[in-house]
Amino acid sequence: MMDFINFHLMPGIILGSIYALGGIGISMTFGILRFANFAHGETMTLGAYFAFTLIQLTGWHPIAVLPFAMILTAVVALGIDRVFYKPFRARPAIMLVIASFGMMLMIRSAIQFSWGVQLKSLMPGIQRPYILFDALRISPKHMLIIGSALVLMLAVHVLLSRTKIGKAMRAMADSPELARLTGIDTEMVIRATWVVGASLAAAAGVLLAIDTHVETMMGFKLLLPVFAAAILGGIGRPYGAMAGGLIIGIAEELSSYAWIGNEPLLAPGYKAGVAFAIMVAMLIWRPSGLFRGKVF
Amino acid sequence: MDQAYGIFLYIISLLTMGGIYAILALGLNIQFGFTGLFNAGIAGFFVVGAYVSAILTTAPSARHLGGYELPVVVGLVAAMVVSGAIGWIVGRVCIRLRADYLAIATIGIAEILRLILKNETWATNGARGVSMVPKPFETLPEPWNQLGLMALVLSIVAVLYFLLERARTAPWGRVMSAIRENEPAARAAGKNVEAFRIQAFVTGCAVMGLAGGLTAHYLKFIDPNAAEPVTATFLVFVMLIIGGSGNNKGAILGAMLIWTVWSATELVTSRILPDDWAIRSAYMRVFLIGLVLQIVLQRFPGGILPERRLRVAKDKKRYN
Questions:
Q1: How many CB atoms within 10 Å of residue B7?
Q2: Once rounded to an integer, what is the mean pLDDT over residues A137-165?
Q3: Exposed/middle/buried for residue B249 (C-beta within 10 Å: 0-12, 13-18, 19+)
Q4: DSSP letter (8 states) at residue A235
Q5: Predicted TM-score (pTM) of this structure
Q6: B221-222 and B130-131 strand pairing
Q7: Which domains does chain A have, with CATH numbers?
């Protein structure tokens, strides 16, 4: 029983909170800008590399540089939107999908060019896990990841429910035409969406890098589960993306638990397939997701 | 003389691989150019075709499934059937949703296929891949063996071009562009939009499987990472869009042009630059081709050979 919690449920929650942070951004850009942003995974990678360089420069703790990595990534995302996505606002959304597909490779190759492809670590050394109640094992870095993710999700909640811009974002995700009619500055909302989406993506990248390491393909590996989280929660539904992320993360880790007999239910090599299976199931039976999001 | 012969062989390999990319670009043109379907998993359909054809035609080996030693033609047809069948399943799931969902699902299926090919070592020899795949004309003396394969690939390109041009100008092709341009109107005219879209998607996937099969026979070897999946997929998109999306001539021209630039820059940078810079310049190359695509998308969305609108038959008679 404790093995189940320590080696399957806990890693699932940790992975799930990282997916949740990534999922919010992809769900909001899909809901507000109306296109599937393929470059979102690479935005996460970029955040992790910014954090790596900031740590090299300052010698601070990864959590201390996290806000600065988030700001830098948000600035880059705003720049990319201005130069590469804005010209397509009035054109068919498929153009934006291609542009973001190209952007995914451009960001990745720029990272490979500037930082190289060797694995890097944000927190070197091995940490001994805390042992709570004699049996529950949790390492300090995992508490850090779950804690930071909770703080960030709470911040998103306050932003969306208490601030004017947050309400405008939700209004525009619901209906862009209606939002424009009520006098909402749509370009302003789009910029806010990029800032929120990209900074949360950067945070997801940094937290994943704290758990594992920094590498150039880390964001691409997150892309599919994060899309699955956004679709599971419902496109344009940030709370849905949080729930979706947690469900996908936990489902991935629980899939390799020995539910029947002593063999893992699903060979660990196929873990990445779980998110895809959940996504396909949603697309067949309930494309609007758990929280009744948009279907295009 | 030796150098001239080297260049001659290089041009043959350029035309062979360029021809295979032209087949991929023609396949994508059916999906994206004619119908507006976004397939982000080209590499997946390609690699499945490669494995199917390789396993069916290779001599027995203890390391992987196979030993059927069937003729190459059978392998290629089976490659088309299997890739098309996978395309049909994916299409059934998301063809009724907007192109974005299809893009997400196809990039997913490409990843899953790669996982299967990597993990099911009993069938595919895992990451080490399938080798000793038979190559058509390999018993001929050099350079005739290379020339023979090039001729085979280029004649497949020609046949495909002929068939797709017929399809494009036939009522089928006109329904396709109607769906792409104005779906409600096509629906109102009584066209079964889903069925037409699935037909286009499956045909495109089968053509991509054929290109995969040809590559396995050409290289005599295939592994799950034969092509870096996303870069390969992206390259085909760049070829089609720069050549002219919706135009079959444009697809072939774009493939030949971009493949020549891609392969020649690799050759040049690996010869003149020191090793670590050669590796770095490979990333720069991906970045630059991405930038070129962005510029073409924004400034010249039609590509080099823009799509030619079909004139109504009545007009043709009057003006020609």
A1: 10
A2: 89
A3: middle
A4: B
A5: 0.90
A6: antiparallel
A7: 2-118+147-285 (1.10.3470)
Option in B119, B237, B241 nearest A270 (CB) = B119
Closest CA to B9 of B187, B149, B170: B149
* Residue whose token pair is 């090599």: A269
- Which is it for strands B221-222 and A130-132: parallel, antiparallel or unpaired? unpaired
Instruction: Give the minimum alpha-carbon distance from B169 to chain A in angstroms, rounded to a whole number.
Output: 24
In the three-class reduction of DSSP (H, G, I as helix; E, B as strand; rest coil), residue A105 is classed as: helix
Q: Which residue has tokens 């990451």?
A: B127
Q: Cα distance from B144 to chain A (closest Cα, Å)?
A: 39
Q: Which helix (H) or strand (E) holds A131?
A: strand A130-132
Q: Kindly state the average pLDDT of the residues B227-235.
A: 78
Angle at B205 between CA B293 and CA B182, to 5 degrees: 65
Judge: A279–B104 Cβ closer than 8 Å, yes or no. yes
Cβ-defined contact of B99 to A97 (cutoff 8 Å): yes
Structural tokens at position A147:
């804690």
Contact B174, B259 (CB under 8 A): no
Residues on chain B touching A102 (C-beta within 8 angstroms): 234, 237, 290, 293-294, 297
Q: How far is CA B167 from CA A251, B137, B187, B209, B244, in A?
A: 45, 32, 20, 19, 18
Contact B112 A272 (CB under 8 A): yes
The percentage of residues in chain A with a pLDDT greater than 90, rounded to a whole number, is: 46
Give me B273's structure tokens. Answer: 């630059």
Contact A296 B111 (CB under 8 A): no
- In chain B, the largest separation of any two C-alpha atoms, in whole Å, equals 67
The dihedral sign for the CA sequence A269, A275, A276, A281: positive
Strand boundaries in chain B, DSSP class E: 130-131, 221-222
Most B CBs within 10 A among A101, A216, A217, hence the mutation to make, goes to A101
Q: Could you give the dihedral angle defined by the CA atoms of residues B205, B207, B210 and B215, in that order, rounded to the nearest 10 degrees?
A: -90
Least confidently predicted of A35-44, A263-272, B185-194: A263-272
Residue A231 with chain B: CB contacts under 8 Å: 101, 104
Among A256, A282, A284, which Cα is nearest to A268's?
A: A256
Residues of A at the B interface (Cβ-Cβ below 8 Å)?
Answer: 30, 35-36, 38, 84, 87-88, 93-95, 97-99, 101-106, 108-110, 112-113, 220, 223-224, 227, 231, 267, 269-270, 272-273, 276, 279-280, 283-284, 287, 295-296
Domain boundaries, chain B: 14-227
Looking from the CA of B171 toward its CB, the CA atoms found within 13 Å total 2
Using alpha carbons, select from B205, B133, B203 the residue that is nearest to residue B173: B203
pLDDT-based confidence at residue B312 (cuts at 50, 70, 90): low
Nearest-angstrom CA–CA distance, A196 and B74: 53
Query: What is d(CA A137, CA A3) in angstroms, rounded to the nearest whole number?
Result: 10
Is residue B71 within 8 angstroms of chain A, CB to CB?
Answer: no
Name the residue type at position A27.
Answer: S
Interface with B, mutate which of A83, A98, A118 (most B CBs under 10 A)? A98
Which residue, among B64, B67, B62, has the nearest Cα to B125 in the 3D structure?
B64
Q: Is the CB of B280 inside 8 Å of chain A's CB atoms?
A: yes
